Amino acid sequence: MKARFYLFSVIFLILLACGEDAAIKRGKEFLRMGDTSAAIRQFESVIKQNPSDAEAHYQLGLAYEGLKDTSQATDAFTNAQRLAPQRPEITLALGRLHWHTGNRDLAIPQFQNLLNASLKKEIYLQLAALTGDAYHVRRLRTEGSDDYEQTFTEKGNMMTFTAKYTDDYSPAVSPDGKWLAFASNRLQNAELYLMDLKTRALRQLTHTDELDEYMPAFSPDGKELAFVTERTRGGMMLPPVQASGSDPSSAAIYLMDIDGRNQRPLIDIDGAQRAPVFSPDGQSVAFESKAPTGGNESAPGDVDNNDTLEIYIIRTDGTNKTQLTHNDVDDGHPTWAPDGKRIAFTSMVGDIYQIAIVSASGGEAKQLTFSDASHYQPTFSPDGKRIIYISNAHNHYTLWMMDANGRNKTQLTNHVGAHFEPSLSQDGKTLVFSSDRSDHMRIYLMNLAQPVQEVELKTRLADL
Questions:
Q1: Are residues 97 and 155 located together in one domain of the fold?
Q2: Which residues does 360 contact at the CB level (< 8 Å), separation at least 6?
Q3: Phi-psi region of 408 (alpha: psi -120 to 50; beta: other; left: phi over 0)
Q4: Residues 99 and 157 in one domain
Q5: What whole-number distance in Å separates Cα of residue 62 and Cα of residue 290?
Q6: Are residues 383 and 258 in the same domain?
Q7: Angle between helices 121-130 and 104-115 (to 10 degrees)
Q8: Phi, psi of 67 (to 5 degrees)
Q9: DSSP letter string, 172-227
Q10: DSSP state at residue 136
């Protein structure tokens, strides 16, 4: 009888534990899908049944953190840390909350405690990204020797050099990793340039004083570039933040050889077409388009959505234009998955931009991100397993990475300045992006094979 009772008790406890795990799993799914209120109710229910459940307190803290309820989040994380002081992700969460609310004197001791422990790589990288860059970053010198002017100090005894132009942006790496195409307004309008990444030799590809060219994209064989052209804005930089940027009344997509020759329009219609990207087989180009009111007739199957950006696909010979999205909100900045079967893009949900994904053959799109922060400019990793994107969480445009299904979001940068337009090398080791972290917009290289080392991170925290 005692043995039978003992066996029943064990089974009951196992079932109870499984039930708790299932309840937390449901709450985490609510949280992932953006239903924060349901998640909070779920975690509070678990805590009511088992007040010593550290995971429930931790997840509750994440939910309140998402709502920017600092007081409730702090209480939940503190309870979780008291119950499970050995869990580094809880310590990181509490430090992160203090960090984002400006309480660095409270945050840094939490971070230093983490560095005194043996950390998993993902926790270490999150800590590095929270306080600067997760991987080593260096500026790519895209200017030539003729792009400088000499200046002197007031005393006249020290000479410095300052760039005459303002911004370089819209970087794109060639498939073989040898070339970088980018836009620059050093001539008071945006022109495209091509740089040899080994020799730093620079070549100007476009020469149009009255036009701006930007958003270059390499073909898979590296022989052609697609790009955007529109009437000049007088030296204004044109990096995108809303879907793929500001909203010109007219912008066209062109193709050209990698040496700048053979420039021709990809599509000859009125309106604004931007953000071109080649399909992996090089036979098609996906892009965003906003047709003008009363403009040209739509292609078969298109929806007359004159007031919003939509995603289209067209053959590189200009035929078979197909509308991929049919929404009453902006959909922009498409990117192909390496298998050519899916396209990720930026889509407005309410008043916020989120990352979504859709089959390249059409159909219903699936939302990948759910938060009160806007997300932009997705780009797939070469293996298709991850998506790098821009987020304005905490009111800063920073680089992030997530699994292709929208899970496991990881911050890559939290440096001073805004970060835009990520482009990955074919081997997945080099992330190129534009940033104004050095005052003007410049091109930077992040080495994804070289994470910030512990000694450097300790020095960074000591300096802070």
A1: no
A2: 279, 286, 313, 324, 336, 340, 341, 342, 343
A3: left
A4: no
A5: 38
A6: yes
A7: 150
A8: -85, 0
A9: EE-TTSSEEEEEE-TTSS-EEEEEETTT--EEE----TTEEEEEEEE-TTSSEEEE
A10: E
Instruction: Calculate mean pLDDT across residues 110-115.
Output: 90
Contact 168, 152 (CB under 8 A): no
> Number of C-alpha atoms within 13 angstroms, CB side, residue 251?
26
- Residue 380 Cα distances to 114, 278, 303, 408, angstroms: 31, 13, 28, 15
Which residue in the block uniquely carries the two structure tokens 């995603």? 311
Which amino acid, 122?
E
According to DSSP, the residues that pair with 168 across neighbouring strands are: 184
Q: Please, how many CA atoms are within 13 Å of residue 18, restricted to the half-sphere of its CB?
A: 6
Contact in structure between 169 and 238 (CB atoms under 8 Å): yes
Structure token digits, residue 112: 């230093």
Domain hosting residue 73, numbered range:
12-118
Per-residue pLDDT tens for 313-338? Answer: 999 999 999 999 998 889 999 999 99
Whole-model pTM: value is: 0.86
Quick check: 120 and 427 in contact, CB under 8 A? Answer: no
CB atoms within 10 A of CB 459: 11
CA 202 – CA 208 distance, rounded (Å)? 18
CA torsion sign for 84, 87, 88, 92 is negative
Greater pLDDT, 353 or 119: 353
In a domain, 256, yes or no: yes
Query: Are 275 and 195 part of one and the same domain?
Result: yes
Give a yes or no: residue 313 inside a domain.
yes
Query: Looking at residue 25, which CATH number applies to its domain?
Result: 1.25.40.10
* Residue of 423, 329, 340 lying closest to 377 (CA atoms): 423
The total number of structural domains that make up the chain = 2
What CATH number is attached to the domain comprising 370? 2.120.10.30
Residues 6+ apart with CB under 8 A from 249: 272, 292
CA angle centred on 459, ends 456 and 462, rounded to 5°: 155
Asked whether residue 7 is domain-assigned, the answer is: no
Q: 438-458, pLDDT tens digit by residue?
A: 878 899 999 999 999 888 888
341, 352 Cβ separation under 8 angstroms? no
CB 345 within 8 A of CB 358: yes
> How many C-beta atoms surround the C-beta of residue 175 within 10 A?
16
Q: How far is CA 101 from CA 104, 125, 253, in A?
A: 8, 21, 43
